[in-house]
Amino acid sequence: MHCIVTGMTVPAMYVKYQDKIEWGEEKLKAQLKRYYDMVDEKVVKKIQNKLVTVREEKEKKVLTTEKILIDATIGRALEALLGAVSQARERAHMYESILAQLEFTIQTITPKISEIDHLSEEDFPDDVIYRTRLQLIQGRELVNKCSNAGCCNLWKSQMYYKKLQELEDSLRRLITIDLQVKVALDVIRISTEMKELSILLLSNTNGLLTNIAAIENSNKSRRGILQALSNIFNIDQLPFLQVFDT
């Protein structure tokens, strides 16, 4: 008979000390220490190596997901998800109805949602783009699991079906993002048109001011010449100067 103490299997005679008065806490610790010393070091190292491997795999998976999020665009993520759904429909026939519905939803939202890729961080919230990418990547992983699950037990089938429904519902909610994209694109278009108009007006205004300045300089030069001639020949220059004052 054995029982579990601090995560290890220990003979019951070492822990059922309440029935024997002579067994105190120190004796129990000594007995437990002897038992731990008997554990094969190879077993301990094997367990430690396994724990390290599991941790490394988790860290690697996190890094891979982060790299995908950095490299992927909304359009590519949607394309990958649609491809995974199409393949799953050929293999996982038990999810045919929900996969067909999911495929239709993706095809419906793709044209507008993919336009997010053309927006910068200033034009559209970066956290929305990040969450959308993450949702699409996780959706693809879910579809791949369903595709490779085969004929699993009833509980897993129901669980996958429910998750696929949740994915389809969440993709439908992306329509609200579609409206935000339209607003952002309209703002960008109006802003671009206003900039082009202001540049055009500024260039025309500068040209007009340049022409006015040239005319004024020309008039000043002519006035100067007439003034000099009138001084030389003692001619009344007033009639001539009035021509340039008009």
3D architecture notes:
This protein is mainly alpha-helical and 246 residues long. The protein is built from eight helices and two strands; from the N terminus they run ββαααααααα. Strands 1-2 form a two-stranded antiparallel ribbon. A hairpin with a 2-residue loop joins β1 and β2 (8-11). α4 packs antiparallel against α5, α6 (126-149) runs antiparallel to α7 (154-233) and α7 (154-233) runs antiparallel to α8. The radius of gyration is 41 Å and the shape is elongated.
Principal-axes shape call: elongated
Placed side by side, the strands forming the largest sheet appear as 1-2
SSE series: EEHHHHHHHH
Major beta sheet summary: 2 strands, antiparallel
Whole-number tally of structural domains: 2
Class inferred from helices and paired strands: mainly alpha
* Contiguous uncertain segments of 5+ residues: 1-22, 62-67, 240-246
Task: Give the distance, in angstroms, between the N- and C-terminal Cα atoms.
Answer: 121 Å
Strand content: under 5%
Radius of gyration: 41 Å
Mean pLDDT: 66
Query: How helical, in percent, are the residues?
Result: over 70%
Tally of DSSP helical segments: 8
* Beta strands, count: 2
Summarize the structure in short:
With 246 residues, this protein is mainly alpha-helical. The protein contains eight helices and two strands.
